[in-house]
Amino acid sequence: MRVISLCIALLFPAVALADTSGVWQTTIDGQTDFVTIHQKNDWMIYAQLDPVNGTWEALEGSVTDNKATLNVIYGPGTATIELTFTSENEASATIVSCQSQPGFECNLSDGATIQLVKIF
């Protein structure tokens, strides 16, 4: 069993990234959004501006290997997202859960995934 586990680990290694801090770009419903990510050791802050309605939200959470689980600390509602970094310049964000406050709506439904590209 250990040999099989070792073979799997060698074939599919986790990407332990040194630092993912920077400005990232994504597209949601045909609209370009920008995200700023700041990482220090195993902690991450993620902030995104919605250019349509001018609101922004900030999330924070922990980083383990190539994944970060983030929760809203400022914004119109509550949400949890999971970021998976496939390289130092590419990531995907999956919406684990989202509940908006009255008058707002979640841009994406639970389970939706978007791609992010680091621009600098």
TrEMBL record:
Signal peptide positions (record): 1-18
Keywords of the record: Signal
Protein's UniProt keywords contain Signal: yes
Highest taxon in the source lineage: Bacteria
Record protein name field: Secreted protein
